Fold this protein.
Amino acid sequence: MPRTICQHCLRPPRVCYCHTLTSISNEWPVYILQHPREASHAIGTARIAQLSLKNCQTVIATTPEEDKDFAEKIRQTRPWLVYPGEQSQPVAEVGQQAIRPLLFLDGSWRKTRRMLHESTLLANLPRISMPMPVSRYKIRKEPVPEAVSTVEAISEVLATLEQNNKKYQPLLNTMDWMIAQQIEQMGQTTYQNNYLDEN
């Protein structure tokens, strides 16, 4: 029999996090370009943002050019691409400017770098970035310490731009709940053996 999943968060009933979601009116529109492989990831976090933020659009593709409507929206709105690097301005420097959309790439570091390099639209967008706190995403190893999940990046950037640290905390609370349930399902032994750093 096919496995039953929640049609909103796309998780099995026992780990459905819909009851933890909070609807939030974000002042800065959020676009998420999600790599197709990330869309099927059971513990991805972009969907938390999609279900929580009132002004959020997710497009599943490797480049904006694959979706004609989205590509045209990118050309018209010229969003800030939230991505680290020498070409990026600090978020704090653009907070006083006119509100414009924020574009986040959802995928592994390797995939997002490839997405960026394969898209002329992405490569030509202005970029912003900011220092991130240590990730709370305990069930996924990242290649660099400053790596955070998509929903963490969205929460931090929006909170900084709007100067409101509490407003986007519900996004992180939902992620924390999801991770706790995942650890419970796998068991502490598996979690400790596979995700905790050896001291």
User: Anything to note?
Assistant: The chain has eight helices and six strands. The mean pLDDT is 87. The radius of gyration is 17 Å.
